[in-house]
What does this fold into?
Amino acid sequence: MVTRRQFLVSASALAGSVGMGLHSSRAWAAPTSPKPSKLVAIVTSTYGPALEAFAKEWTKQTGIPVEVISQSYDTTYTKIVTALAGGSATDIVIVDSIWTAGFVQAGFLQPLNGFVGSATKDLVPVSIDQRTIDGKVYSMPISNEAKFFYYNADILKAGGYNTPPRTWEEAAKISQDLKDKKLVKHGTIWGWQQSEGLICDYVALVNGLGGKLIDDGGKWIVNQGPGVKALEFMVDQLKSGGADPSSISLSDRQVVDSFSAGEHAFLMSWSFALGALNNPKNSKVVDKVKLDLVPGFASAGTTSTSVVGGSGFGVTATTKAADWAWDLIQFATDRTRQIEIFKIRSNVPVWKELYTNPAVVKEYPYISQMERQFEYATWRPNIQNYAELSGVLQLQIHKALSGQVSPQAALDQAATEMAKL
Amino acid sequence: MTSIDLAERAGQTPGAARRPGFTEPNETTLAWLLVLPSLLIILGIKLYPLAYSLWLSGFKVSVLSPVARYVGTDNYVALLTNPNFQASLGRTLYFTVASLVIQMVLGISIALVLNTPFRGRTFVRALVLLPWAVPTVVNAVLWQWIYHPQFGALNGLLNLVGLIDQNVQWLGSPYLAMNMVILADTWKTLPLYVIMFLAALQTVPDELHQAAAVDGAGFWKRFVHVTLPFLKPTMVVVLVLRTMETFRVFDIIFLMTAGGPAGSTTVIGYYAYLEAFRNLNFGAGAAAANIIVFSVALISLAYLRLLRTRAFD
It folds into this structure.
């Protein structure tokens, strides 16, 4: 976890960022409306330290104090919903991409089109598209997220492989070979605990097999074709030993710690893993881990796959200082601070120009590759009661992973239950 | 007590306490005035939320679309006929019964050992109490690491002594996870049992044991006929307290397994949480919470009726 102190200490890096041709000072006028006595923001602990550090700078400029309420990811959704439904004075909330539809339906957020304006064209499309409903932008992205493919190059090299697998079928063969050579006990480790991270991987695999969760008519089709094949692949991975059996009890965050022990060849994870795996304090795989495109499926003829995520800052419908809230958001998400966040948490930037800025690319060589991954990524359904639907799917997928029911039976049950909700 | 007595107790003469136009409240009014602050607090933080929860459970209401619709007992019927809820009720009963039996047997056994004189007894007594001081959150994280499939101490130990050659998925197996949570909970709560039974054991007169021994009673007979009757009142108290705690268990499940794997540790406390705070169906969540309250109340009443007579008469 990055602390606020670390963020403050790293503020010196801003100077370096300026050297990349980016602007660190504000390039926009401050609002002319009366200043509020303070602003209140509810964010996940992922972005809490960053926002606190940025807000401190912003307060120096504007004189408006900011109260940052930082929660763990798993409790933030409930915190925001209960705070806004209960009428708490909150100005800014973090909006995970999968929360957007529900928050909009509940009337929690106000459209930001008037504030964002034409800047949307400067953002990576996937950043802004998943936050837009009926042409209205409901949050300003603070980071792009997707699942990336990490591999332990040392282990692969020892096994005689100089390049990572291009398909999951090839990954399975390499895993078996590495096991036979006693280089690993299991090729891949996944974060398949019964939680949202499990759904992210499932959605990415369904996409890799050329399918989706909901058809164009809005019907759940998880129990057909690619939906079933993806779960069969997951179950086979566990049964064959290609995947570490620990996978089903690890969250998508815990699995990064497990991979950092250097006992596995492959990991599919979010962008923050890049920083965590290269942190010498906690990782045994510093400089051994490389990043590449997530493999596709030879059986489906796909090149790669992934699922996007990431968070944005939304302005609440009830705030009395929308323009000042936006001013803080604009300040916290400007190009210089995006580089800060990428540097410290390896959260991928949302501004297009950063992916091609020579100085940025030179310092962060993976950034171009990460941008490429977004081309192959899909979204999780952006629907109002997503959390409840996801819960149903998590339970049934986990029943199949733990061998209690077959993949087909699990997904039939999931489709039936989800259709009722 | 009269108002004059009260004034005297306060160190005032009856005449001095009176002011023109001031009428002393009568005893009943004074009593109500004195308990009013506590009553207001109890009404505010206990009865009002309970009544509100009962009222809420009669509605279909979601925070995301806050238009409440009265549905009568539909939320209760839907829950009680839902196989997932029935399964979570079964898991809760298993957690409750298994925890209570294991903890009761271990608690009495350890209390008996600690009641016999031996060198270092005070130190061991203090040591046994230590887990009680550990917060539940810390306890859950501690055991999560002990059970960690890759780095956990339990797998490390069992590997070391040669009992296993492959790491066990303690929290990854639907058949093991609940039992491992019970073990973690037992480590934390056992001191409560030990200290309660140790206190009860102090009340057993030595003469009874000596007389029973003279009559030829062995350890087991003396335990059943002499010691156990003295422990029964404590057993009632501990059973009622711990049944309430185990039946509405939430924190350790939330932290250690999040209801998984495959829903195998989704007890009704966690089910109610998911319904209310993940699915945001506050009506159904309230109904699930009320079912917990009714169940605990019923079980507690049953305990009191079954055990009180035998224990106290």
Summary: The longest strand of chain A covers residues 39-44. Residues 386-401 of chain A form the longest helix (16 residues). The radius of gyration of chain A is 22 Å. Residues 4-144+310-377 of chain A form a domain with the D-Maltodextrin-Binding Protein; domain 2 fold (CATH 3.40.190.10).
